[in-house]
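cache lookup: miss for this entity combination. No prior model stored, computing from scratch. Input as submitted by user K.M.:
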Amino acid sequence: MMQHLPILQVLLPLLASPFAALLRGRDVAWGLTFVTTGLAFLISIALFFQQRAIGETMIYELGNWAAPLGIVYVIDAASALVLPVISGIGFIATLAARQLVAAEIDARDHGLFYAAWLLTIAGMMGQVTTGDAFNIFVFLEISSLSAYALVAMGAGRDRRALPAAFNYLILGTVGATFYVIGLGLLYMLTGTLNLADLAERLPHVEETRAAFTAMAFIALGLFLKMALFPLHFWLVPAYAHAPSAVTALMASTATKVSVYVLIRLIFGVFGVEFPGLADAVGLLVLTLGIAGAFVGTLAAIVETDLKKLFAQSSIAQLGYMAIGIGAMSATGLAAAFLHLFNHALMKGALFLAIGMIAAQAGRATMGTIQGAGKQIPITMTAILFGGLALIGVPLTAGFISKLYLIRALLEQNFWLLAGLTFISSALALAYVWKIIEAAWLQPRPNGAPVLRETASQYIPAWIMVVATLGFGIYATPLVEAAFAAAHVFIPSVAGAN
Amino acid sequence: MSAENLIYTLLSLPLLASALVLLFRNQPNLRDGQAVLLGIISAGAAFQLYLLPTGASLTLLELAPGLTLSFTPEPLGKLFALVAGTLWPLATLYTIGYMRGAKEKNHTRFLFFYAVAIHATMGIALSGNLLTLFVFYEMLTFSTYPLVTHKGDEAALKAGRVYLGILVASSIVFLLFGVIGVWAMAGTLDFVSGGILAGKIDPFYVPALLALFAFGIGKAALMPLHRWLPAAMVAPTPVSALLHAVAVVKAGVFTVLKVGVYIFGIDFLKETGGSEWLVWVASFSILAASIVAMTKTNLKARLAYSTVSQLGYIVMGMALATPFAASGAALHIAAHGAGKITLFFCAGAIYVAHKRTDIQDMNGLGRTMPITYTAFALAALSIIGVPPLAGAWSKFMLMGGALDNGYLLVLGVLMVSSLLNLVYLGEIVIRGFFANPTRKLKGVQEAPLTMLLPLSMTALLSLALFFAIDLFIIDFGG
């Protein structure tokens, strides 16, 4: 049983999905999803510790077919770190979904909703674990197609979910197509799709224009999927109009998985030494990353719809991850992994809390939360902590990310870029402050609906808040795991931590 | 008690006080009494720690590899802890008198955040590395915000926005940048005697890195980042007295001094000349703020600009890059602390007893409030730098330091500034004692005893400090 864990965490949600679609009754489909995601979470935690204990890459051969002919699942320090993020968020979001979905989705559609929900989680887990480039594409499509459907399900409450989902579908498909075109070129050049095998054979053909083109296509396709500025336009409407539970799940996981796949392909397959990579990807990613950080933050400052506000902030936060990648160093990658992890926690907390407000009030805007600090103090405090973490206030997880991101830039002597990163992250104060002022310093307007909160509503968000604070106060194991993940792609230099 | 236990005591007493404030929220006398009592204990603990030899260290937790929250009291930190620890119980006693006398609301919330702010100040004072200092620095900003906006009206909220905006933005843009910059270059953030940057950084970058700290530490109120301090004067006077004359602003200049001495190192700054520009910026701040102070007729506003000016002295003491001037700067933290808290205490006493805030309305008040005005005069003389009061020593040492490094012009700046101090603080005393009252005043009409007692004690402290000066001169030469 234990040796099958690497496949089981993908297989479980995949198999549970059709059952969820068939099940009727309000809580039955939810119950199945809850148990499945819970198991997947436990498995990925077990895998994490197993991998940390043995300290080397675990390879699972599907059907006992050895690579490169068979498909392998790879649990190394990087995938072992990202898996618990996906499944953990999936689990907590499922916990919150019971109320959110009941409030926002027509009862007849619950089975279908949870089927798509499980599929998208399975797809993401698959992308993280598989060691086969084409298999990544398959899982990418599984998770994306079900995500399009999930976003579109917001239409029952908000018709704008339909164009948002359509937009997302078109751009997502363009991204996936770019990826598969690049993959085709690679297959043509090397005759293999196994990631490790690709990495071995690529150096023989690295001077060819086809190899460079392949890299460009793959990178561009993934930029689109991870919503890197200026390819981010699908993200804000999709997050804003999707059902609240879907927003919480996707904001913390979907783009992160694409960041992970980008790192895996660019650093794991092409490698930092690949000709033209440092210029084409490194410089470009740095530039787009910092531009995205500013654009996203400034857009968030003027936004009044809370889901859109934090979706814009996600653009900025993805910019920071991109900056970590663009630094092209072990510290930079570690910072990207740290922020991938930490941002999932904070955005999870924020969107779960906001979702609870939106599910009650129909939508969550600055007006909805005006003076709400006294009515729903626990929920609003969760939003406050999530916001502080976004700014990078010390003793929150965001601070740790920022420390290592800036350190990575300073190690490369990118002082100006470090300064700009600082300014953009400080600007986050402006939109967080706007929320604090609306919620606590302004009176509740007369005739505004009374907001309520019960334990089952705020507990999911608070689990994430506690994690955000916990990983901000004691981040040592996480930092070590992030560096271990980074060293999978860029071997460590003696003496550096 | 061992030094480790004293560190725990100093850090936890204010937290205990704030918890008890919440617990006894319905019994005002018990609530207020325990805060004063715990304050007195903490003053004793701070004094005991001050007398113990340096060397103790305490690590609370490890945030990330090599980044710890730890506390290492060194002479400068112990001095600051002593200043904050001694003035806290006096200010708390004063607060009780003021809040009841001025009929302010929400005493519980006020006392709660007051104690939390002291906890943050103690954390800053005893911090063993820059990260710890930064954490408590931010905590101090956030915990004082509810105190600044205590009144809750539009003006208070507006001032609060300026307060939080400048302090948070400067610290998370410049200060944190400087902290991480030091970490990336030196590989550590520990405060080490002689600094940690020598040989780790190209001397060319020293002025720029120093600028990140000088302007990142907004609490030091170096012009042009001083705007938050006058804005914070909307707070009830006990806040202005303890926090915006002592804890918060002194946390700022303390941090500047500590970074100069234990991160850059005085010798390194002197060799590279990286702090020369700061001498002139501080000079400008000293003179410009004094001139602005003369134009203010609101008593608290005038005192606030006087504080901005006096903080410039301490920044200058670091920038002069000699051990003698740095000792003078450290001394000025204590001397100005005792003096300025007295002035604010008096301003609050005048407000509670006569509801006056404008200097032009205070003619002849000295005759009806003799104790308050005597205390005010003593403290003013100390700040001007007249012997036998504490301020004389620190100004003397700063001048000596300026001469050591050949800054003759700075000598002129210090003298002109003393003259300006004399003019704008003297005016208040002279109006109080010698001008004819605008309105009829009957006999002696002082503020309640809970206010008079603290303000007389802090005034006497200025006097006592002059004679006990040996105890408070820190030798940065070694």
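stored under new cache key. The CA atoms of residues 223 and 345 of chain B lie 25 Å apart.
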